[in-house]
Amino acid sequence: MAKNWKAPRIGSAFAACTILAAALFFLTFPHGKNADASSVPELLAALPPGAPSLVYVDLAAVRDSSFYQHRPNKGPLAVPNQEYSEFMRVTGFDFEKDLDRVVIASWPPASVKEKTRTMGIAEGRFDRAKIRSYAMQKAKVEQQQGHEVFLFASGTLSTSSMFFLDDHRIGFVTGPSIVPFFAARTGDSTADPARERAARLDGAAAFIISRVPPIPENAAAGSAQGAGTEQLLTLARSIQWITFAARPEGDNLRLSLEGECDNSADAHQLQSMLEVMRMFGRAGLESPKNKQSIDPATIAQLESLLSSAEVKQTDERVRILLELTPDIFKLSGPAKAQEPK
Question: Considering the chain, what is the average pLDDT of its residues?
Answer without folding.
Answer: 80
